[in-house]
Design a protein that fits this description.
- The protein is α/β, with parallel strands linked by helices.
- The chain is 29% helix and 32% strand.
- It contains 7 helices and 14 strands.
- The strands form 3 sheets. The protein has a 7-stranded mixed β-sheet, with helices on both faces. Strands 2-3-1-4 form a 4-stranded antiparallel β-sheet.
- Helix 4 packs parallel to helix 5.
- The radius of gyration is 18 Å and the shape is globular.
- The relative contact order is 0.12.
Length: 252
């Protein structure tokens, strides 16, 4: 296939994570994500053999040629957001106060912080007394970096994906933030103790992680507003919802 094309896959919000992970394996330069009524559209921009390879791996994907000026449209998609007293955005935008900014390059994939679940977690972090923090399933490190900006320390970010851990370290360095990032399988490995833990993953992993945490408070997201994770041993404090997604805060 010649010329640049946009390859898109649609999935329900609670089924999107495996699709997102597969797309990032096939096209690690980054992806575009749009939500509508609980359905997520994930898209990548590729050409030539790379596009053919992704289409062969994703038979349910749709594709269309990309017109001139797509770079500007892609940048326009990644807009900064203000949440919890922090500015979250891409490096080509200028934050009003760099000390309150979380700058993430979408070309490094895993998300820039504009997704509703990320924004909900940051808002709940801003409402939570600071202390040590464990970010479970850190992705690009947005939440770990945001927590550091909000006064949490020390901050430990973990993920089963080594690429996510390296991306988190790179993003932390780019933001001038000190944190520790390690490869850990949250469903089987040892989870270090922390005052607060945050897990923005799918519903089933959230429930498994809650059962294994050694923390006083937990913030969870990655599921739809109609859902709430089972949480034996935890008292539910509050729920926030945004664009059909939800986040919860629990306490021991």
């Amino acid at each position: 296939m010649s010329g640049l094309i946009r390859i898109a896959v649609r999935a329900r919000g609670d089924e999107a994570e495996p699709v997102r992970a597969r797309l990032l394996q096939l096209a690690p330069a980054g992806l575009e994500e749009r939500d509508a009524d609980g359905v997520v559209e994930l898209a990548v921009y590729l050409d030539g053999e790379a596009a053919d390879a992704v289409l062969a791996e994703l038979p349910g994907a749709t594709f269309q040629p990309v017109e001139d000026g797509w770079e500007d449209a892609w940048r326009a998609f990644h807009q900064p957001v203000l949440v919890g007293g922090l500015w979250l955005g891409p490096p080509w935008e200028r934050p009003p106060d760099p000390s309150r900014a979380v700058v993430i390059d979408p070309g490094r994939a895993f998300g820039t912080g504009s997704h509703p679940t990320t924004r909900l977690c940051v808002e709940l972090l801003a409402r939570t007394p600071s202390g040590s923090l464990l970010d479970v399933g850190c992705g690009s490190g947005v939440l770990a970096i945001a927590a550091s900006r909000l006064g949490f320390a020390p901050v430990l970010a973990i993920d089963v994906d080594p690429v996510a851990v390296e991306t988190t370290r790179a993003n932390a360095a780019a933001n001038g933030v000190e944190l520790d990032a390690r490869v850990v399988d949250a469903l089987s490995g040892r989870l270090p103790a922390a005052d607060v833990a945050v897990a923005n993953v799918l519903l089933a992993p959230v429930e498994a992680i809650l059962a294994r945490l050694h923390a006083t408070q937990a913030i969870t997201s990655g599921y739809l507003a109609r859902q709430r994770p089972a949480h034996p041993g935890w008292a539910h404090l509050e729920t926030l919802a945004l664009e059909g997604w939800a986040a919860d805060r629990f306490r021991r």
